């Protein structure tokens, strides 16, 4: 019989625990800088206007039904997703070198990729995945669940609050040949620190020398800079350099489709005369994994994204919405930095505007994070990460004062 005594109590997910603590706090001045979801200037969730439109189009379709999607998902969605991340005129698409499956948002894409690699990647040799230190914490659990070993490469320099480029490259260079290197395509979570294009080129070169396998996690395309091509630059550059790689693509942030779980997994093979048959074989195995895990992906979020991605006018409206979100975040970065500098808060604050995307690594210590929570009712994760989207014109000064108080 099943012995329930062997099931230990697991710790609460720290981020979701933080959200619960925030909800319990009755102070009217409380500020939520924990969860990575976009908020408007009134701290409210924002349904993108273009998503509202797509929703209306879908709902007015008398033929809309709730049938199953195919195992690989909605074809219009996965082909549009390829174009979005790889570029519409990508040779990889033209040469049919890409296998794509719709997944349960970015998490599901990371999982499907990890599962596939666990089953087929260098099964006869030692293989290790490398994550940035720090990284999105779910990477650890997802890879652990599929029994892939992992280590980390240095990423964040506490001193400069920027990229530890030397540490990163040295570790990647010294990793066993053929390691899996997980890279954040843009808007690194949790630090907000991205390599420059010159640095990406260097990383690419070292990875080529060591025949490493890149696994790009792309959860913020268009959300980071407001420019879809710019945010996909690193992925496209690696493919141009001839890499075989995989990509986990999320539509949670850039479409605001968090709970709809729209995402895509892509496996791109390198150019070879038999690339098309290789991709067909890979796709067939991915389909088996998908079938056993989720059977087929959820339809509605993918339909919304697909409606927008495949319509020129709606696509342009989406780009405007992306600029609204990224622009507001960039404004908040500027406002926070200038307020801290105006207050003469000890330390340097240029990292706030140097960093990009949803998050900023403030450099606050765990003790300071806990103090700011009890003194000022500001909620952020213990590593000092703040979600920039939680700041707005009504609370940014309050937050700057709270930081100032705790730093002094
Ligand atoms: N990868 C990274 C780096 C992320 O930051 C996130 C979301 O926070 C995800 C993947 C996946 O998110 P979702 O499953 O909601 O698409």
Provide a quick synopsis of the model.
It is built from 16 helices and 13 strands. The protein has 408 residues and is α/β, with parallel strands linked by helices. Pyridoxal-5'-phosphate binds at residues 36, 105-107, 110, 136, 184, 189, 217, 219, 250, 252, 258, 263.
Can you give the helix content as a percent range? 40-55%
- N-to-C SSE series? HEHHHEHEHEEEHEHEHHEEHHHHEHEEH
Specify Rg, calculated over alpha carbons.
22 Å
User: What are the segments in which pLDDT stays under 50 over at least 5 consecutive residues?
Assistant: none
Number of strands: 13
Measure the end-to-end span.
59 Å
Q: Give the helix tally.
A: 16
- Average pLDDT, rounded to a whole number, is 96
Q: Structural class of the secondary elements?
A: alpha/beta
Strand order of the largest sheet: 2-10-9-8-7-3-4
Identify every distinct bound molecule in the structure, by name, code or SMILES.
Answer: pyridoxal-5'-phosphate
- Multimeric organization: single chain
Largest sheet, strands/sense/barrel: 7 strands, mixed
Give a description of the structure:
The chain is α/β, with parallel strands linked by helices. The protein has helices at residues 14-24, 49-59, 75-86, 91-94, 105-120, 138-145, 165-174, 197-209, 228-231, 233-240, 275-293, 300-309, 312-343, 350-354, 366-376, 396-407; strands at 31-32, 98-104, 128-133, 149-154, 156-157, 162-163, 180-184, 213-218, 245-250, 262-268, 359-361, 378-379, 385-387. Helix 7 packs parallel to helix 8. Pyridoxal-5'-phosphate binds at residues 36, 105-107, 110, 136, 184, 189, 217, 219, 250, 252, 258, 263.
């Amino acid at each position: 019989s099943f012995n329930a005594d062997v099931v230990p109590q697991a710790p609460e997910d720290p981020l979701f625990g933080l959200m619960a603590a925030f909800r319990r706090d009755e102070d009217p001045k409380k500020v939520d800088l924990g969860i990575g979801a976009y908020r408007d200037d009134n701290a409210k969730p924002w349904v993108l206007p273009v998503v509202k439109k797509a929703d209306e189009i879908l709902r007015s379709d008398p033929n809309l039904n709730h049938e199953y999607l195919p195992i690989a998902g909605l074809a219009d969605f996965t082909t549009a997703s390829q174009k979005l991340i790889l570029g519409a005129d990508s040779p990889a698409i033209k040469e049919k070198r890409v296998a794509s499956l719709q997944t349960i948002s970015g998490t599901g894409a990371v999982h499907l990729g990890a599962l596939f690699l666990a089953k087929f990647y260098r099964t006869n040799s030692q293989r290790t995945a490398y994550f940035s230190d720090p990284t999105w914490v779910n990477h650890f659990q997802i890879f652990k669940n599929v029994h892939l070993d992992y280590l980390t490469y240095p990423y964040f320099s506490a001193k400069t609050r920027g990229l530890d480029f030397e540490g990163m490259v040295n570790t990647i260079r010294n990793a066993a040949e053929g390691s899996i290197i997980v890279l954040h395509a843009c808007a690194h979570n949790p630090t907000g620190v991205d390599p420059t294009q010159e640095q990406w080129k260097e990383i690419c070169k070292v990875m080529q020398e060591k025949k490493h396998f890149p696994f790009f996690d792309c959860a913020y395309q268009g959300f980071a800079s407001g420019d879809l091509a710019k945010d996909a630059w690193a992925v496209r550059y690696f493919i141009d350099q001839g890499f075989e790689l995989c990509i986990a693509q999320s539509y949670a942030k850039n479409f605001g489709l968090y709970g709809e779980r729209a995402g895509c997994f892509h496996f791109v093979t390198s150019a070879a005369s038999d690339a098309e048959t290789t991709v067909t074989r890979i796709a067939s195995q991915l389909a088996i994994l998908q079938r056993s895990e989720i059977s087929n992906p959820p339809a509605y979020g993918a339909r919304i994204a697909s409606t927008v991605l495949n319509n020129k006018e709606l696509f342009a409206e989406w780009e405007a919405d992306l600029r609204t979100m990224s622009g507001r975040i960039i404004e908040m970065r500027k406002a926070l930095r200038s307020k801290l500098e105006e207050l003469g808060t000890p330390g340097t604050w240029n990292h706030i505007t140097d960093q990009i995307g949803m998050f900023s690594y403030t450099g606050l210590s765990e003790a300071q994070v806990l103090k700011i929570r009890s003194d000022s009712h500001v909620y952020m994760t213990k590593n000092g990460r703040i979600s920039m989207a939680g700041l707005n014109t009504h609370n940014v000064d309050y937050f700057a004062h709270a930081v100032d108080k705790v730093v002094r």
